[in-house]
Amino acid sequence: MVAPKVAWYALTWEHYCVLRHSLVSWLVIKDRIYTRDKLKLCGKVSDHSCVLCSRGHESRNQLFFMYVFQDSFAELLATSSGAVHGVLSV
Q1: Spatial contact of 61 and 67, defined as CB atoms under 8 Å apart
Q2: SS3 13
Q3: What positions does the domain Reverse transcriptase zinc-binding occupy (predicted)?
Q4: Domain boundaries of the chain, sorted by first residue
């Protein structure tokens, strides 16, 4: 018996997808990617705050769906490209 394909199957496992991207996408969708909140539960890290924004706990939802670090990323791009602060928006 073959399990039915899920709605996100074509986004991750089609032949044109890069295998590394497919694997990370699958881990994110299944909430199995190792983020700092999961590593803290295993005892691998002592602090589960986000290393990108330091505003909250690093989790799958925060990294991939809540876009908390979007402003700091835009600021980093602006300063590295020499753009005037506030001109670049993501």
Answers
A1: no
A2: helix
A3: 4-65
A4: 1-33, 46-90
Q: What angle do CA 60, 63, 64 make, to 5 degrees?
A: 80
Q: How many CB atoms sit inside 10 A of residue 50's CB? A: 19
Across 35-43, average pLDDT: 92
Model pTM score: 0.61
DSSP-assigned letter for residue 30: T
Between the alpha carbon of residue 71 and those of residues 35, 45, 68, 79, the distances in Å are: 21, 26, 7, 12
- Mean of pLDDT values over 20-33: 89
The position carrying tokens 């394909």 is 5
pLDDT of 41-58, one tens digit each? 999 999 988 887 777 888
Closest by alpha carbon to 73, among 55, 87, 53, 56?
Answer: 53
Which residues, 6+ apart, have CB-to-CB distance to 69 below 8 Å?
50, 52, 53, 55
